[in-house]
């Protein structure tokens, strides 16, 4: 008899049996409000009937239509329909399975298209666990420690994290752009730099939004030097932030967009998007894989697109997100241990600090555990593990947010009051 490796670290002891909308049910039938959405994946809620129907219909026809061997219609239709949501001029897409794979695909594309070796990433970012993506990840040493030698060619520049210094946003932005220029002058010359790779909102790194001035500064430098601007929208895409893409908050257009998670409501599917001209600079066969663009996942993604449009889920993320944020701010106002509430739409984090201002991972973990025991599933994040994040499915209602806030305020009063 074999057993599951202890290498898997789980945030809760829950063994889940089924899901419906914003709720998960364990094997004993206990109901949980799921404010994790499977790490920001189940955008349309658990088992949305239209996603289930699309997947069930597809699964009876074809489960695996291997895309480097034969083509299948759901992939072609999805590629076409992504044109409805992608920014111009990103009119060409390539599919894979996970966020990490898509980040690696973007890295390959950037290196091929520019003929340059290096990338600049922004301190606190998470881009994945495969060695290439992990080498670009600086949201915590746990994703790198002991994995060396990691991939070379990655320079790290500051992200504008005003809250860390007690600065205002303008000061943090000015600092981060000045340091980027310094990195380009001292570490990786522009002529050797293929791409800037950035999350519009630091996800695993603690739910820190970028801002228009910083993103404009990146765009300007990218244009000046022929460097590609790659946005990793794995966590911020598909309506999560109250706009379809996170970067839309900041008024810039990326050259390459990376998406996964919310794309297929829980089926493994990811993609990169770029202009056809840019894609044409790499060569056919330079990307691929056995499972990429799975036909059932593509069918689920098509249904996901329909549900997001028909149920106005992007607007819901904005509006219900505002209610959640206001409620969290109210709790924080009564709780000195919560030093900051931040994020966009339905991607919100609560940062815990001690009375001395030090990151307080212990209280954040206690709050997360206590919330789970009271029926509210949450995750922590941040380089110090001191941020409790809330990322419910985008179908969440005002009532469900009220229910979650009631549990949360009780939890916080008990663990940090
Ligand atoms: N990029 C970002 C911004 C992410 O949040 C994640 C996952 N948390 C990844 C990449 C990696 O995605 P995956 O776990 O599907 O490989």
UniProtKB/TrEMBL annotation:
The lineage of its organism: Bacteria, Bacillati, Actinomycetota, Actinomycetes, Propionibacteriales. Pfam families: Aminotran_3. It comes from Nocardioides immobilis. CDD domains: OAT_like. Its cofactor is pyridoxal 5'-phosphate. The keyword Ligase does not apply. This is (S)-3-amino-2-methylpropionate transaminase. Keywords: Aminotransferase, Pyridoxal phosphate, Transferase. PANTHER family: AMINOTRANSFERASE CLASS III, LEUCINE_METHIONINE RACEMASE. GO terms for molecular function: (S)-3-amino-2-methylpropionate transaminase activity; 4-aminobutyrate:2-oxoglutarate transaminase activity; identical protein binding; pyridoxal phosphate binding. It is an enzyme of class 2 (transferase).
